[in-house]
Amino acid sequence: MSQPPKGRHSSDSPPALQKVKSPMLREPTHVFYSRVEGSWVHWVGIGLVVVVVFLLVLLFMPGIHVLSLTTRLLMGLAMVSLLSVLMIPFTSTLTIKIVIDRDALRVRSTFGWPLITIRREKITTVEVVDYDTWNGFGRLGLVWGFGGRSGLVLFDGPAIEVNQTNGKCFVLSVRDAEAAAEALATVAKK
Q1: How much is the pTM?
Q2: Which of the four CATH numbers 3.40.50.10420, 3.20.20.70, 3.90.45.10, 2.30.29.30 does domain 30-190 have?
Q3: Rounded to whole angstroms, what are the CA distances from 65 to 54, 58, 61?
Q4: Any stretches that span the bilayer, and where are they (predicted)?
Q5: Angle at the Cα of 154 (from 151 to 157), degrees rounded to 5?
């Protein structure tokens, strides 16, 4: 039987496809995505754009000669910049990524902020709740309440409530709240 050429493996699969066991590889993680739902989001975004377009049209109307062209251009640039600055925080929490791994619960928005991490040793209980804006924090988004309650709530409906050893409680909107709660409870028990 002939030997494989030096640098080649005797198995049929190329080296890149073989399983590699390494202490650097983490255990499988559970990843969930949550996003804002409802038409109000679209109306807020459209409303901001309409206001800026209206102001830009007013600035560049032919009958307005009070301001020089340079001043009007600078004001238009300022308005577009302001719209951008207003839209970044608004759009940053429209979609969040929820990662549950062997160490912690990590919640991150599209742009990386806010970043919320709850270590597994800090978790006492995890419950599935049906969140209602009017009976909860009174609003959606990144929210804080009395008694150490906080949350990242993007919609009414299924959510997980994570109680911590320091007495704080964190509420998180998740469509598949039961699977997320089960995964987080398993991680917290380890």
Answers
A1: 0.62
A2: 2.30.29.30
A3: 18, 11, 9
A4: 40-61, 73-100
A5: 95
d(CA 157, CA 164): 22
* Bridge pairing between strands 157-164 and 123-131: antiparallel
Are 105 and 123 in contact by the 8 Å Cβ rule? The answer is yes
Q: Is the pLDDT of residue 90 over 50?
A: yes
Q: Exposure pattern of 72-95 as b/e (b: 16+ CB <10 Å)?
A: beeeeeebeeebeeeeeeeebbee
Token pair of 90, please? 């608004």
For range 138-166, the mean pLDDT = 87
Quote the DSSP letter at residue 189.
Answer: H
- Structure-model confidence comparison of residues 21 and 120, the more confident one: 120
Q: Mean pLDDT across the stretch 143-155?
A: 87
Place of tokens 């704080």: 168
- Asked whether 100 and 180 are in contact (CB, 8 A), the reply is yes
Token pair for residue 153?
A: 């709530």
Q: Which residues are bridge partners to 116 per DSSP? A: 107
Here the tokens at position 134 are: 């009017």
User: What ranges do the domains of the chain cover?
Assistant: 30-190
- DSSP, collapsed to helix, strand or coil, labels residue 56 as helix
d(C-alpha 18, C-alpha 14), whole Å: 7
